[in-house]
Amino acid sequence: MGKYLLKRVVLAVVTIWAVATITFGLMNMVPGGPFLSEKAISPAATAALEAKYGLDKPFIERYLTYLGDAMHGDFGLSLKQRGRTVSSIISAKFPVSAKVGGIAVLVSLLLGVPLGVLAAYKRGTAIDSTFSVLATLGIAVPSFVICTVLMYFFGVKLRLLPTLGLTSWKHYLMPVFALAAYPTSYIMRLMRSSMLDVLGQDYMRTAKAKGLSQGVSLFKHALRNAILPVITYLGPMIAYTLVGSFIVEKIFTIPGLGGEFIKAINGRDYTMIMGTTIFLAAFMVVMLLIVDIVYTIVDPRIKLK
Q1: What is the pLDDT of residue 298?
Q2: What is residue 109's predicted lDDT score, i.e. its pLDDT?
Q3: ∠297-225-212 over CA atoms, to 5°?
Q4: CA geometry: angle at 185 spanning 122 and 94, to 5°?
Q5: Domain boundaries in the chain?
Q6: Directed axis angle between helix 86-121 and helix 257-266, to 10°?
Q7: What is the largest CA-CA distance in the chain?
Q8: Distance (Å, rounded) from C-alpha 137 to C-alpha 79?
Q9: Which residues contact residue 177 at a Cβ distance below 8 angstroms, ignoring those fewer than 6 apart?
Q10: Residue 147 and residue 153: Cα distance in Å, rounded?
Q11: Contact criterion met (CB below 8 Å) for 258 and 245
Q12: pLDDT of residue 212
């Protein structure tokens, strides 16, 4: 276990370094600069701003300086939000995205797993067909379409739910549903196919022959093995959902990290783009490492080497 974790940590560091290097290089290859959108700015003022933020230095020097600072959690100053550091913006906005995303992850698991098990248990029935159609729709329909439909019916027509901000529990309902639609549908399909495979195994027939009840054999024996593909998907899903969908945050005006990232792209805020990208990449790598560890807890037969 120790050697495996050390290997994964080293690979994680290399992955994050590669992401940081590629992002830094791409930001410097993009034509133009972060101060082109400033109104009535003179060449002298532009040069002064570039000197202030160190953009006038050679590429290699800026790259090494940025990597050294990033290793200490310092992603520099935002080029557009004057006086604010990228780290402070991320620390202020990420909890908002994480709260909405965390609720969506919980909803996805609480709905997707049991519905997938039920669909497999009722294979070939109307329940199975209905769940399959719903899962296909949840995967195929883009999140912005779901957001638009929810806002039109529940926000505009029926006036049951608020459409902007996050000031009460009602504000969470539509964003959480929009975020949870895809992962719930995907988990449902994963659980159904995996459960069908497990139900056909010899040990399940043996458990039934021993007289075990359907509930015990289904949840004690079948579910523990069938849920492994869901755990594999859980890492990327949590990383994607907790940081929030940029489109969902933009539509519902959620003050999370997604909106800041979009503003950074539109405003050519290079330090904000690089800092957010590195942060999300590191978050993803950590989630994948945790998934590997959880694997051995759920199924002790799996050994980490």
Answers
A1: 64
A2: 92
A3: 115
A4: 145
A5: 96-270
A6: 120
A7: 85
A8: 41
A9: 107, 146, 150
A10: 10
A11: yes
A12: 66
Beta bridge partners of 85: 77
If DSSP states are collapsed to H, E and C, what string results for the chain? CHHHHHHHHHHHHHHHHHHHHHHHHHHHHCCCCCCCCCCCCCHHHHHHHHHHCCCCCCHHHHHHHHHHHHCCCCCCECCCCCCCEHHHHHHHHHHHHHHHHHHHHHHHHHHHHHHHHHHHHCCCCHHHHHHHHHHHHHHHCCHHHHHHHHHHHHHHHCCCCCCCCCCCCHHHHHHHHHHHHHHHHHHHHHHHHHHHHHHCCHHHHHHHHCCCCHHHHHHHHHHHHHCHHHHHHHHHHHHHHHCCCHHHHHHCCCCCHHHHHHHHHHCCCHHHHHHHHHHHHHHHHHHHHHHHHHHHHHCCCCCCC
pLDDT of residue 286: 83
The ranges of the chain with pLDDT < 70 are 1-2, 4, 31-42, 45-46, 49-50, 52-54, 202-205, 207-217, 219-221, 243-244, 295-305
Structure tokens belonging to residue 114: 């049991």
- Identify the sign of the CA torsion 206, 212, 215, 216: negative
pLDDT for residue 296: 67
- The superfamily CATH assigns to domain 96-270 is MetI-like (1.10.3720.10)
Q: Work out the angle at residue 108's Cα, subtended by the Cα atoms of residues 166 and 142, and round it to the nearest 5 degrees.
A: 75
Residue type, 53: Y
Question: In the prediction, which pLDDT does 180 show?
Answer: 92
Residues above pLDDT 70, as percent of the chain: 83
For residue 70, give the nearest of 271, 259, 298, 220 by alpha carbon.
Answer: 271
Integer CA distances (angstroms), 266 to 45, 53, 259, in order:
21, 19, 11
The pLDDT of residue 104: 92
